[in-house]
Amino acid sequence: MLKPLAALCLLSLATPALAGECEANFKKSGNPLVMTTWSSAVTVPNLSTRDALAQMRGILVAEKMDVMAEDADGGTLLVEQRQDKAARPIPTTITVSEVASGTRIEMAVKMERGVFSKAEQIQPYMCGLFAKVKGGKEGIAAARKGAGASNNEATGNQDVFIFSRMIAGEANKNAIAVNARHKGRKYTLTGRIEILMEDGEDYNLIFDIPEISEMALKPLPFDAQFKVSVSCLFKPNQLTTVLALREGQKVTLTGTVKRYDDIRRVIWLENCVKAK
């Protein structure tokens, strides 16, 4: 059994040890013309694979990452930096596995084709994330906190046409990823109303999105050559708001993504309200 002083010394060395291991394992593969992947790995003693994955989820969500997919049994976690006007979505994959000395945690950050990045920027970031991982009782507590964590930060107001083209671009690459990326995420959108109609018990507002043939600037050959419609569903208790709206009116609404339908090429937002 360790004496208290010795135990404190080991704890104080844990973070530098992980950072040093991360730096030693840090590597790059690919290039900006195809895809650049930065990766590294550390081994954490006294930590189960499930607790390691839950910890990494909490750590990455705290960095404003969105969880795309998690497989606790398979030991994998996929998160993504949220796309905005200045940045493309950047996926990060975490893989955990049991080894003789503890749990090995691997991290891979993939940059899309055409995105340039430097080792001196990526390495400190990745190793800083690894340095937050804890083993033992602290690791169990951190895992409980991180399990199920998600980024609920709302996305700022944007033009509905730009939003529509963003979804079309993502669907053009991988339609399955659209729901994984956006389902449950809140958006505030500004645009003109094309159609107002009843939809079961809800009220459906369809934004006016031009057809490809009507666009002043046509999509480039490698861009999506199809339109994605945007529908906002109001609950029955929003009838007063809906009755005050008019087709052709410009509105700013906030709603939560319900799903993307790739067959009909429409993205549905639910629980819509007028933005404050």
Helix-strand topology string = HEEHEEEEHHEHEEEHEE
Q: Provide the spatial order of strands within the biggest beta sheet.
A: 1-2-6-5-4-3
- What is the CATH C-level name of the largest domain? Alpha Beta
Rg computed from alpha carbons, rounded to a whole number of angstroms: 23 Å
- What's the architecture of the largest domain in CATH terms? 2-Layer Sandwich
Q: What's the number of helices?
A: 6
Mean pLDDT: 89
- The CATH topology assignment of the largest domain is Alpha-D-Glucose-1,6-Bisphosphate, Chain A, domain 4
**Overall geometric form:** elongated
The total domain count is 2
Question: CA-to-CA gap between the ends?
Answer: 60 Å
Helix and strand composition category: alpha+beta
Q: Describe the biggest sheet?
A: 6 strands, antiparallel
Helix fraction by DSSP (H/I, runs of at least 4): 25-40%
Structure summary, number of beta strands: 12
What are the low-pLDDT stretches, counting only 5+ consecutive residues below 50?
1-14
Query: Strand content of the residues, in percent?
Result: 35-45%
Keywords: Signal
Signal peptide: 1-19
Descriptive notes:
- With 276 residues, the protein is an alpha+beta fold.
- It has two domains: 132 residues, 2-Layer Sandwich (Alpha-D-Glucose-1,6-Bisphosphate, Chain A, domain 4); 120 residues, Nucleic acid-binding proteins (OB fold (Dihydrolipoamide Acetyltransferase, E2P), Beta Barrel).
- Helix content is 32%, strand content 36%.
- The chain has six helices and twelve strands.
- It has a six-stranded antiparallel β-sheet with strand order 1-2-6-5-4-3, with helices on both faces. The protein has a five-stranded mixed barrel with strand order 8-9-10-12-11.
- The longest helix is centred in the middle third of the chain and has 23 residues.
- It is elongated.
- Keywords: Signal.
